[in-house]
Amino acid sequence: MSITTSQLQARFDSIQNQIDTAVINATTKSELETLGSKILWNSPMEMPLEHYLIDMLDRSVITIDDAETKFRTLHS
Q1: What is the DSSP string of 11-30?
Q2: In angstroms, rounded to a whole number, what is the distance separating the alpha carbons of residues 71 and 38?
Q3: Mind listing the pLDDT tens digit for each residue in 43-52?
Q4: pTM of the prediction?
Q5: Are the C-beta atoms of 53 and 67 separated by less than 8 Å?
Q6: Rounded to an integer, what distance in angstroms lies between the CA atom of residue 3 and that of residue 57?
Q7: pLDDT tens-digit profile of 1-34?
Q8: Are the C-beta atoms of 52 and 64 separated by less than 8 Å?
Q9: Which residues are CB-contacts of 40 (< 8 A; sequence separation ≥ 6)?
Q10: Residue (of 67, 37, 69) closest to 54 by Cα position
Q11: From CA 50, how far away is CA 59, in angstroms rounded?
Q12: Residues whose CB is less than 8 angstroms from the CB of residue 47 and which lie 6 or more positions away in sequence, other chains included
């Protein structure tokens, strides 16, 4: 069975949406650290949470205020 580019893109988009939702819903330093170390870094993206927050900003998923709040929580 082969997978098409559009099927692969759909799977990636689904995973990315799930991660976006988890980041948006994370409110504690522990939750953010877990997302950063166990999900993002060990995914094909291999990026720290701070970089993913910037990516979310670039994609207009979160606002600058939301990103700043996550940064402050993560580094508190």
Answers
A1: HHHHHHHHHHHHHHH--SHH
A2: 17
A3: 766 788 888 8
A4: 0.81
A5: yes
A6: 30
A7: 788 999 999 998 998 899 899 999 999 999 999 8
A8: no
A9: 19, 46, 47, 48, 49, 52
A10: 67
A11: 14
A12: 40, 41, 55
In one-letter notation, the amino acid at residue 45 is M
Q: Is 44 in a helix, a strand, or coil?
A: coil
Q: b or e along 16-47 (b: 16 or more beta carbons within 10 Å of the residue's beta carbon)?
A: beebbeebeebeeeeebeebbeebbeeeebee
Note the pLDDT of residue 57: 96
Per-residue confidence (pLDDT) for residue 73, from 0 to 100? 96
Q: Are 41 and 48 in contact (CB under 8 A)?
A: yes
**Furthest-apart CA atoms within the chain: distance in Å:** 48
